[in-house]
Design brief:
Layout lengths: L1 E5 L3 H12 L3 E6 L2 H10 L3 E4 L5 H6 L7 E4 L4 H13 L4 E5 L3 H4 L2 H8 L3 E3 L1 H14 L5 E5 L4 E7 L13 H6 L4 E7 L2 E3 L12 E6 L1 H11 L8 E5 L3 H13 L3 E6 L2 H10 L4 E4 L5 H6 L7 E4 L4 H13 L4 E5 L5 H6 L4 E3 L1 H17 L6 E7 L4 E7 L20 E8 L2 E3 L12 E6 L13
Helix pairs in contact: 1-15, 7-10, 7-15
């Protein structure tokens, strides 16, 4: 596909790396000549220095023959203008990053009437991810598939976890739960395990299951925690606003936000009348203690600097807070995990994943497009949701007869709202939803998993 990316900040660069790596023809447009030079040197892409909202600049990038334009500059209005121009100049599809809360209320209207294919809000995506974790704090991360019929949970194997030393095939036998360990992070490696794989201390396992089975599994391991009732948020930016709004819509959750700027604190108080907004410096331990950090069910660090978020999260750990979530913009997840921080959220990566899912679906022409995509194990593996169409050539073929590629696992099948963990005698049928986990990057169709 021919893809133009306008703006090469954090999200733009992440998209450039992924899309160029997947073999697409990528053109990057940015006003900063050094940014353009760097992206040309680092990736196999074409770069143009200029204003992405200029008709002439877009024409230089080949917009008339482009399949997709993605605008991820720092300005919402510029992103939407770039997409509007691209459509008029012949580009087939467009994606704009829109972050302003006021615009979020009218995204559907703008998408419909402006002809923009997709509008992405990284801060809302991050808040949504955090909200899911707070509703099921037993897991480090939780991703939904098949309209919530199946969940993918990330679980840390601590030193006293009774799974240590046990092969994964024993899980059902020992705990009588229908779960599947579909991926393991060990040190810096992504492993797609077979039934004989033995779990070790320090592993992070990725488990697929329905929500009731996942709850039963967590209870059996002694890891289950009830839904968050009290949450303290450090920092009052966009993610904090979206998160507080989502948690209050769920009901039964008391939200406390600590924001240093008096003007922003007043703004949040007016926008979130049910939340308690404290004007103060969240990096001051005395203030955190005074506001009851030690009695909170959860603490979410959403400050502007990664270093502040890391330090605050470590302090919350000393106060025995049940669930701690840390926002990261630049720091590696491995670094933060290495200092004991488990649930790390990156708005950049979430927005990139959503756009990649759209691009793969757009690029596919066989009817088995990726419906949901999550990168796991620090991006070294992927969990993908596919639909099985009537014309798929391998329906009715048992998995025992089917030759799957190495490092691919069928995590589960959803058939008429029933969750199936397939064995050798099972098969795919038309209309099924299939969850695939693989360390092979860039799978686009179900056919890609078969040798």
């Amino acid at each position: 596909m021919n893809i133009i990316i306008v703006g090469n900040g954090k999200v733009g660069r992440s998209l450039t790396r992924q899309l160029a790596g997947e073999g697409h023809n990528v053109v990057v447009i940015d006003r900063n000549p050094q940014v353009v030079e760097d992206v040309i040197n680092d990736f196999d892409v074409m770069g143009i220095c200029g204003n992405g909202a200029s008709c002439e600049i877009q024409r230089q990038g080949g917009v008339a023959k482009a399949d997709l334009l993605i605008s991820v500059t720092q300005t919402d209005e510029l992103n939407m203008l770039c997409c509007l121009l691209a459509k008029q100049l012949g580009c087939r599809h467009s994606i704009a990053r829109v972050r302003t809360p006021e615009y979020t209320k009218q995204l559907e209207f703008m998408q419909k009437h402006f002809g923009i294919s997709m509008l992405v809000n990284p801060e809302w995506e991050a808040a949504d991810e955090i909200s899911r974790i707070l509703r099921f704090p037993s897991a480090i991360k939780l991703e939904p598939f098949a309209e919530g019929h199946v969940e993918l949970a990330e679980i840390a194997i601590g030193g006293d976890n009774e799974l240590i030393g046990k092969p994964v095939h024993m899980l059902h036998e020992k705990y009588r739960v229908r779960v599947l360990v579909c991926a393991v992070k060990r040190d810096d490696e992504a492993i797609i395990p077979n039934g004989d794989f033995v779990i070790k201390k320090g592993d992070r396992i990725y488990v697929t299951a329905s929500r009731p089975e996942l709850v039963n599994f967590m209870r059996a391991l002694g890891l289950y925690r009830s839904r968050t009732r009290r949450v303290m948020i450090a920092g009052g930016g966009k993610v904090a606003y979206y998160l507080a709004k989502q948690m209050q819509e769920i009901g039964g959750c008391k939200v406390k936000i600590i924001e240093k700027s008096e003007d922003r604190a007043v703004e949040l108080s007016e926008a979130l009348p049910k939340a308690e907004v404290i004007c103060g410096d969240a990096t001051a331990s005395e203030l955190l203690d005074e506001q009851g950090l030690g009695v909170q069910d959860a603490f979410v660090a959403l400050m502007g600097r990664d270093e502040e978020n890391a330090i605050l999260s470590m302090y919350a750990t000393t106060k025995k807070v049940g669930k701690i979530i840390t926002k990261s913009s630049r720091m590696s997840t491995n670094v933060l995990n290495g200092i004991g921080l488990e649930s790390v959220i990156s708005a950049k990566e979430l927005a990139t994943d959503r756009i990649l899912r759209y691009v793969r679906a757009l690029h596919n022409s066989e009817g088995t497009a990726v419906r949901t995509l999550y990168r796991i194990v620090d991006g070294k593996a992927e969990a993908l949701e596919f639909s099985v169409p009537n014309e798929f050539p391998h329906t009715g073929v048992t998995f025992r007869e089917m030759k799957l590629k190495d490092n691919v696992i069928i995590a589960c099948i959803i058939r008429k709202n029933k969750v199936i963990f397939p064995g050798g005698d099972d098969c795919m049928e038309a209309g099924d939803t299939v969850i695939v986990v693989s360390s092979i990057q860039r799978l686009r169709t179900l056919q890609d998993i078969i040798e």
